[in-house]
């Protein structure tokens, strides 16, 4: 993208290969009508260009030129001769650019300075007038034919689509509520999916089944461990073959931790009991004097 140097200062991607400047379409028509114009990216990839007419291989500056909507430029006389060689019954789509094979006639909804200038040149020749007048007439004929087909029920693609839509509308029963039909399907899908994965409503019997009578009652230690395991271990499903082994591993791990805790507790209790049992003997030793050869001394 670049900024055109004209007074309009428009951003444009068009680049003049001869003058090495960005040009907008207004400048393209008035000041660069015989220059080779392509995108700026094309110029960055390859800056070489041919200043001759692709049809006659003579310099473009030698005569009047016509620029197509694809921005390829030709001598107007060469382009007119090229189009005149085609059969008289050639459709407008059959007139194509000799370089890129795009249509010569600009689209009816294309409103650019280049397209307007091209239309003015095409209106000066017979084949150009025929091609320009064919587009709106074809569109109007097509619209009239389509409307008649829809009203009369003629078997055309458009009428087939409309008839299909009408049949679909007629087959709909207005007495049935859409919500009444959709909601049961959603409930069925939800129940089916939960049953397949084994987690319907995420229900955990040990946690969610408490009633108001036993909710605040003190629970035994074993039930607390069971609730803890069920809360943190995912429930097994039909598609999970390792769920049973996982639950067994967690249970064994909890049991080992409990045994280790119990062992540490019993060891500390035994040590304190041994010390209390040995304390009277130590007091007796302290109470009796210690006799040493050569005298006696109390401690």
TrEMBL record:
Chain coiled-coil ranges: none
InterPro entries reported in the protein's UniProt record: U-box_ZFPL1-like, ZFPL1, Znf-B_box_ZFPL1-like, Znf_RING, Znf_RING/FYVE/PHD
Residue stretches of biased makeup (Basic and acidic residues): 173-202
Molecular function terms, GO-annotated: zinc ion binding
Coarse class of the protein's main subcellular location: membrane
Keyword Zinc listed: yes
Entry GO terms, CC: Golgi apparatus; membrane
Zinc as UniProt keyword: yes
Keywords associated with the record: Membrane, Metal-binding, Transmembrane, Transmembrane helix, Zinc, Zinc-finger
Organism superkingdom: Eukaryota
Bias (Polar residues) ranges: 158-171
Record-annotated RING-type domain positions: 53-100
Pfam families named in the record: U-box_ZFPL1, zf-B_box_ZFPL1
Stretches for region Disordered: 158-209
SMART domains recorded: RING
Ranges annotated as spanning the membrane: 248-269
CDD domains (alphabetical): mRING-H2-C3DHC3_ZFPL1 (cd16487)
Localization per record: Membrane
Membrane topology: Single-pass membrane protein
PANTHER family given in the database record: ZINC FINGER PROTEIN-LIKE 1
Family indicated by similarity: Belongs to the ZFPL1 family.
Record protein name field: Zinc finger protein-like 1 homolog
Native organism: Hypsibius exemplaris
Lineage per the UniProt record: Eukaryota, Metazoa, Ecdysozoa, Tardigrada, Eutardigrada
């Amino acid at each position: 993208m670049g900024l055109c140097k004209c007074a309009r200062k428009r951003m444009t991607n068009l680049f003049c290969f001869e003058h090495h400047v960005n040009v907008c379409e207004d400048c393209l028509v008035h000041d660069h009508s015989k220059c080779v114009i392509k995108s700026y990216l094309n110029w960055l990839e390859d800056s070489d260009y041919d200043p001759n007419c692709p049809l006659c291989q003579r310099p473009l500056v030698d005569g009047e030129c016509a620029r197509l909507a694809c921005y390829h430029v030709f001598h107007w006389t060469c382009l007119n001769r090229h189009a005149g060689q085609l059969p008289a019954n050639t459709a407008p789509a059959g007139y194509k650019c000799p370089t890129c094979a795009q249509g010569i006639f600009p689209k009816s909804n294309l409103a650019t300075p280049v397209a307007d200038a091209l239309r003015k040149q095409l209106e000066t020749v017979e084949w150009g007038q025929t091609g320009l007048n064919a587009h709106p007439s074809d569109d109007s004929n097509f619209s009239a034919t389509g409307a008649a087909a829809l009203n009369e029920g003629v078997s055309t693609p458009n009428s087939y689509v409309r008839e299909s839509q009408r049949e679909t509308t007629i087959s709909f029963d207005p007495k049935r509520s859409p919500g009444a039909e959709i909601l049961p399907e959603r409930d069925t899908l939800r129940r089916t999916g939960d049953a397949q994965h084994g987690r319907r409503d995420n229900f955990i019997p040990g946690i969610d089944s408490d009633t108001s009578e036993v909710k605040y009652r003190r629970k035994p230690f074993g039930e607390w461990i069971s609730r803890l395991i069920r809360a943190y271990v995912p429930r097994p499903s039909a598609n999970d073959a390792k769920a049973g082994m996982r639950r067994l591993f967690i249970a064994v791990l909890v049991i080992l931790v409990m045994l280790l805790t119990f062992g540490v507790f019993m060891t500390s209790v035994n040590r304190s009991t041994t010390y209390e049992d040995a304390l009277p003997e130590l007091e007796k030793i302290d109470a009796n004097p210690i006799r040493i050869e050569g005298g006696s001394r109390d401690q």
